[in-house]
Amino acid sequence: MHGTNGNGDSHIHRDELDEEFPLGDGTADLDAIVECPYCGESVEITLDPGSGSEQEYVEDCEVCCQPWRVMVHYDEDGHAEVTVSPLAE
């Protein structure tokens, strides 16, 4: 179901968003603290639950600038399991 926001722009009805992103009540994890596999420093990264329940992407360490492979898995309650590994692996 589509509607307008008063400016004439279309928007998707809330039920359709819930079907596409079924991560519960909006309490999905939005950040995580991970340990850089290169320098060993603890780094807080921002997560995007809207990108799906299974994600894999590259992000650079903000301390040593080395690239990581970041893997994120959201469970049905919106809790994120995050792992990082060297990009070369």
Describe this protein's structure.
- The chain has a domain of about 60 residues.
- Helix content is about 10%, strand content about 45%.
- It is built from one helix and seven strands, in the order ββαβββββ.
- The longest helix has 7 residues.
- It is elongated, with a radius of gyration of 17 Å.
- The chain has a three-stranded antiparallel β-sheet with strand order 5-6-7, with no helix packed on it.
- It has about 90 residues and is mainly β.
- The N terminus is likely disordered.
Strand arrangement across the biggest beta sheet: 5-6-7
What pattern of helices and strands is seen along the backbone? EEHEEEEE
Radius of gyration: 17 Å
Classify the helix fraction into a percent range. Answer: under 10%
Summarize model confidence as the mean pLDDT: 80
Structural class: mainly beta
Please mark out the parts with pLDDT under 50 across 5 or more consecutive residues, or reply none: 1-14
What percentage of the residues does DSSP assign to strands (E)?
A: 35-45%
- C-alpha termini separation: 44 Å
Number of helices: 1
Count of strand segments: 7
Which helices and strands occur, and which strands form pairs?
Layout lengths: L1 E3 L5 E3 L1 H7 L10 E5 L6 E5 L7 E7 L6 E8 L5 E7 L3
Antiparallel strand pairs: 1-2, 3-4, 5-6, 6-7
